[in-house]
Sequence to fold (371 residues):
Amino acid sequence: MDFLVAPIAVAGIAGIMATLVALVDMVANNYGEVTIDVNEGKKEMTVRGGSPLLLTLSTEGLYLPSACGGRGSCGACKCRIISDIGPYLPTEIPYLLPEELKQNIRLACQIKVKTNIGIEIPEDLFNVKQFSATVTAIKDLTYDIKEVLFELGDDTIDFEAGKYVQLVIPPYDKIKESTQRAYSMSSSPSNRNQIELLVRLVPGGIATTYVHQHLEVGQKLDLIGPFGDFCRTASDAIMLCIAGGSGMAPFKSMFYDMLDKDETNREIWYFFGARTTKDMFYLDEMRELEKQLSDYHFIPALSEPQEGDGWEGPTGLITDVLDRYLKETIETEGKVLEGYLCGSPGMIDACNRVMNDNGVIQDNVYYDKFA
Fold:
């Protein structure tokens, strides 16, 4: 039996050490009750200390944007801290501009509430709500993009076209705890008790895998929103809209919102890029808008058209198509142009260069960049 003594002794010591660590953690991290003052008294809450600020605020019904679900990989949950909470963490620095560092802007998911603090957030975040929604329809738009329609029951949502919600994904075989991901709303704001999302399958993606492989009609999920500032201006400037894939969502919302509000005279050029015809969708709907919006132009383009697919539209990268139209087709002399971009960082950077080269000033370019 001697050969059992050492393992048992080690196990006993390990158990004692684990208990000591747990006790030390309970004492060291017992911050008690702390107060969070939001916008100089607009809202004040007394909470239990020790949790990340983002999570603490959400448990009190105050929601900050978080496209990555609090993992510290999107940089969306910014707020200004007006009390001393210690130095910046290495996980915050990459997402903050020099001027934001000077203003003590922090990432709410990365800092813990350990003492009384004061914070400042945009006023419109006080209107963000958590909705319990029911999936009423799921439609395959392409082989990798689904249109998902949610009903809010007796609840309603007020939002500007172009904004997004955070979809709360419940635990399943890929995750042990719920998480959130951001998706632009493709529905018109006039449909106040419905939210429509376009979800493209990303290989290995936690949220997109759940939507494509597990989500069912009749299921209930939580949605949090609205968030974002990707909205059209009230000017009469020409709108240059560029998207690909599920980047269609905010533009669909904008165009139908303009139709609903009888804002039908603004000049719009909508460039939508895809690889092949199997990646194209909503072609009929977008072309039908050309009959309803008097100065709306839909330009779908394929970067890799396949022989025999019958494609007769523009070809090439969407940035090249945009460049050609700006140089050869769109009358820009003496007019103000605004750019609206929705897609990957690489696509947005490339579009920015094309627009800048063609006289669109950077201050007039707005974008919804995928995290």
Summary: The first strand starts at residue 33 and ends at 38.
